[in-house]
Known about the structure:
By secondary structure, the protein is of the alpha/beta class. The protein has 12 helices and 16 strands.
Amino acid sequence: xxxxxxxxxxxxxxxxxxxxxxxxxxxxxxxxxxxxxxxxxxxxxxxxxxxxxxxxxxxxxxxxxxxxxxxxxxxxxxxxxxxxxxxxxxxxxxxxxxxxxxxxxxxxxxxxxxxxxxxxxxxxxxxxxxxxxxxxxxxxxxxxxxxxxxxxxxxxxxxxxxxxxxxxxxxxxxxxxxxxxxxxxxxxxxxxxxxxxxxxxxxxxxxxxxxxxxxxxxxxxxxxxxxxxxxxxxxxxxxxxxxxxxxxxxxxxxxxxxxxxxxxxxxxxxxxxxxxxxxxxxxxxxxxxxxxxxxxxxxxxxxxxxxxxxxxxxxxxxxxxxxxxxxxxxxxxxxxxxxxxxxxxxxxxxxxxxxxxxxxxxxxxxxxxxxxxxxxxxxxxxxxxxxxxx
Length: 390
């Protein structure tokens, strides 16, 4: 068990923690029709304007890419650097670990470089793969900004990437390798994911509506999020983690959500909790036909039909891919702090076949424990349980 002592979130509907939570409570979506000049797909996206408006300082120019700009903005807000500095002072820079999650890293910078090259222009001299597209670049960039010298790693397991960072941080703390950890995830909009999901026929031409009877697919967003874990307890703690792998299909989940069930049950078992102890579940909830159906089947199997309040906040942020885990986890932390469950945005008519108690309006409740679920491509699953100290 580790305390959540600070966090910072940035996405299309929220520039800081407060604005994000207000968007979640009201179901105010940050999704808009796609107007990207470099992608003409008829879809909705969750674009963060700060990625364009916040170039990195001159001394960080070699790190400049859309992903690192998102990280930079998120790391300047919510007093997060101050909290990390206090942890470094308390434990030492070598005793604070760093675990980041991303699915595409800075691939947009490589896409731009190839576009230049295909136009018969010289390969861009300022393109620095090692500082932008390379998967470990995000961790090295963040470590430099925060002055961290402890062990670090970047996890890339599709949409569960920045949920699994919590599990690894907890293991490192438990085994005595570190005393605190910065965990996080960043993913930015790029052609690779937009065209890829479109090719899989999972990209919706409408705004995404998780658990809706007329849902037609995902809306992709971008985001950056960070949390500071400490071996000492806090107001909200990371209680346990559960991980599993379907090994069922390259992209589709097991129809009965067997891997999702296993992750949730493992998290409950690790926390020595029963299903009825969980007061709220933040679902992966992507709004595809297959994912929502499989996740609903898994949730029913673990908790019982309609037995636990559940919502997906991807109607607010879009599916932020490798940043989805940290984005959703921070929502759960805020729900426990505020004792309020956020609704599923954009829901018009609940798919009754799912047999879920979907939160449609902000709902107050006495929340002791809450769960955040992230289920990625290929069946890479992670369930996190957070608890509020009494």
